[in-house]
Specification:
The protein is mostly helical and 262 residues long. Helices cover 34% and strands 2% of the residues. It has two domains: 109 residues, Cytochrome Bc1 Complex, Chain D, domain 2 (Orthogonal Bundle); 119 residues, Cytochrome Bc1 Complex, Chain D, domain 2 (Orthogonal Bundle), CATH 1.10.760. Helix 2 crosses helix 6.
Amino acid sequence: MSRFATRATLVALGALGALAGCRAEERATAGTPVPAAATTTVISRSPYHPVDVATIPDGPLGDAIRRGKQIVEHTYEELPDHVGDKLHCTSCHLAGGTVADAGPWVGMPGLFPQYRSRGARVISLADRINGCFERSMNGSPLDPRSDEMIAIEAYMSFLSKGVKSGASLPGRGFAKIDPPPVPDRAHGAEVYATTCAACHGADGAGQFPGGVYTFPPLWGDHSFNIGAGMARLDTAAAFIHANMPLGAGGCRRRTPTTSPTS
């Protein structure tokens, strides 16, 4: 798993290097890592916006929403029995699931139940969340009726307030790179060393100063398993292209013609 994830990440970066999206002049930003907490202030295009905790209602529903937010932002710490790595849901779903082209959760509750070709069946939102727990979290599923699952769903529903049920919003998921560039693993290793290692470490193990999560691991025992979406070349490349380096507007900023969402 570790070798596969390493290879996929480096090849994805090599593909982006072929686009010249992460140029040398951008790499200066990598020398000053942006703390993980900074992702909560990312501003993205309408209908996405940072979470305003002041608008969470009082009472039991508000308690569930706040609990859900805590879980998705501190997943392995909050649910150690169900998480086998050291990732948060928001390691990929940036800024609490509110950033376009970074797997936003805005509007997601209204898209379920839905048919998923991966399992060749119709699934619920809870099923989809549990798929992430099993693969991206390298762990085990939650009881769909548990307080924790209900809290996560409540938080996603809170983010989706005002969004019409069934609406597939622009910026949903991860923006595919079209046409896809030719991968180059060696170039990917170079881009990683000069642009990504400042935050994620030369060994891809992330940063946990004093045991506190700061930047996520990209491969190895503390990262996602081979079944995760980020283990796929096209998904990893799309995420990196749109969102990395963190806080710098994404590699695609330099290559507006390579992405339909740029």
